[in-house]
Amino acid sequence: MTLGQALDAASNARLLGSRGSRSELGADHPGLDITPTAAAVLAAIPAWWSARASAVGLDGEWLDVSVAVATSPIYDVEPPVLEREWGPMTAEQVGMAYVSALSPATRARHGRYYTPGVLAEQLWDSARHAMGWSRAPKALPGLVRDPAVGGGALLLPPLREHVAALGDLDPQLVINSVASVIEGIDTDPAAVWVANVVLASELLPLLARVPSHRRKPLPALVRTGDGLSAELARAAVILMNPPYGRVRLSHADRARFGPVVYGHANLYSMFMAAAVEKLDDKGVLGAIVPTSFMSGRYFEPLRRILTDHVTLAGATFVEDRSGVFTSVLQETCVVAFTRRKVRKVKIESLGSDCSYVATVGPPTTSNPWILPRRSDLAVAAAVAASLPQTLRGAGWRVRTGPLVWNRHKEDLHARPATGRYRVLWAADIKTGSIKYDKARNDKRYVALPETSVLIQRERCILVQRTSAPEQDSRIVAAPLTEADLAGGAVVIENHVNALVPEEASAVSDRVVLALLRSRAVDKVARCISGSVALSAYELESLPLPSDETLAKWASLDDNALDVAIAAVYAKIES
Questions:
Q1: How many helices and strands in the chain, by DSSP H and E?
Q2: Is the separation of the CB atoms in 409 and 559 below 8 Å?
Q3: Secondary structure (DSSP) of 242-283
Q4: What b/e readout covers 154-169, taking b as 16+ CB neighbours within 10 angstroms?
Q5: Which residues of the chain have pLDDT under 70?
Q6: Hey, how many other C-beta atoms are within 10 angstroms of the C-beta on 453?
Q7: 449-471: per-residue pLDDT in tens?
Q8: Which phi and psi (to 5°) does residue 268 adopt?
């Protein structure tokens, strides 16, 4: 495959998505699985280097990357003739070409994807803000590390700033200083070589200014290793777009990462926790991660570690994802944490450009973080943060519907019969009532033993787990009434959440329904989860007024109740 084709393949590749790796932590190296496209990229890098070096006035041995950089290619491949359009390629494009040229299976297995330049720049801007820096370029204050460096994209902005800040010094001294402030680590030896070449290429103008008799090979800033190692030195800044996916932990890793794991172990949460361990006393952590860590139950231990040891300084939500990523499956954010004291968190939205959303107080607990994704949600987030109660605290539990229909295909039927129970699907839940969707009538009943735990026999409130982006309301709720239970029981499908009161509940189902259908609570829900899904855990975490206020509402008629809710959430409604 030609390099032009390789770049096309890279630009069309899926750049970010959830990964399902279940391999043991640190078990294997993705670089050992090289596709023809990736091999073509690796083979062409020496010629690309030669063109870059020649363009700044270097010649002779400095056109040979194996001489000019203190690292050697790990693959013995025949260099192709450099295609004309690849001569002016940027460092970012070279890194993208390699990482994106890995096979889909390799990228899926190891959670690898390329970080677009706009996101790498945003991450560095967020880290600078967390350090309290002004716009003027500054030399790096200490070690800046990327523990899962890939093609080196995240280290390019800080490296460029460091070089720009020291531009008037002796160029050899500037080159020498870089090795003490830039560090990348990766398990993929091919990616390590690519990143070393990419980062070294940024130093070529400096090298050209060094008298020929004083020139030395440019330093290798990236090494093969484990970015989760407990032996790493402390760093002033850690930047990461960490791999995703579930992993099996060894006994040693289980002992170390146990406090951050709930259920399965996810790579990116462990990378974030490990980074917090390795920050110096004024350190900053910048990460590109799914927003699910801000609210999901599985990440409650991670939020506890984060709020105990660092403070959120900024969050940028990638709202207009089509302008940044291709085929993104999860809502993504850029976050920056610091060990410094922070009173306010800067919230931004990144699409075709970066826009200011709001300034809010930093989250301080492991509960779901209530942060506005858009400027019109800023007041909702502020009011919600001041409320003293949650739905769970008020005595309501949320259970996800237990019927996973494709596990019961042979048990689903269109007609009722003895031993069959009516199935409630997400499409049946309309705002305020249940209206059976005709498209589900061929699977309207399921045959189950009478003692099955899948059967729902009591009244409850049903809420769709997912909603379409075009829906006006994120929360679509309806009561499961006695009439709906006319047959004595129903079965709730897995895409529906059931809200069930405890005996000592402080709030009635009528009040809960009124809250769920209000625009105010809908806005609050959007500050908890920016995706189309609203989990049982997130529903239980919805902020509510005090028990005293909820008790007073119980005696109000419907109109008065709506007015009372609007009064409590008045700032949101305005």
A1: 20, 24
A2: no
A3: ---SEEBPPHHHHHHHGGG-BSBEEHHHHHHHHHHHTEEEEE
A4: bbbbbbebbbeebeee
A5: 1-34, 74-88, 102-114, 320-330, 469-470, 570-574
A6: 7
A7: 999 999 999 989 999 998 876 67
A8: -70, -30
Paired tokens of 471: 């829906």
Q: What is the pTM of this model?
A: 0.87
* Longest alpha-carbon distance in the chain: 93
CA distance 491 to 154: 49
State the burial class of residue 230 (Cβ atoms within 10 Å of its Cβ: 0-12, 13-18, 19+). exposed
> What backbone torsions phi and psi does residue 249 show, to the nearest 5 degrees?
-100, 140
Side-chain-facing half-sphere of 84: CA atoms under 13 Å: 0
What is the DSSP track for 113-172?
Answer: ----HHHHHHHHHHHHHHHT--SS----SS-EEETT-TTSGGGHHHHHHHHHHTTTS-HH
Walk across the sheet containing 455-456 and list its strands. 412-413, 445-447, 420-424, 490-492, 455-456
Q: How big is the chain, counted in residues?
A: 574
Can you tell me the distance from the alpha carbon of 391 to that of 501, in angstroms, rounded to the nearest whole number?
Answer: 10
| Amino acid identity for residue 172 in this structure | Q
The DSSP annotation for 477-494 comes to EEEE-TTTTTTS-EEEBT
d(CA 140, CA 174): 12
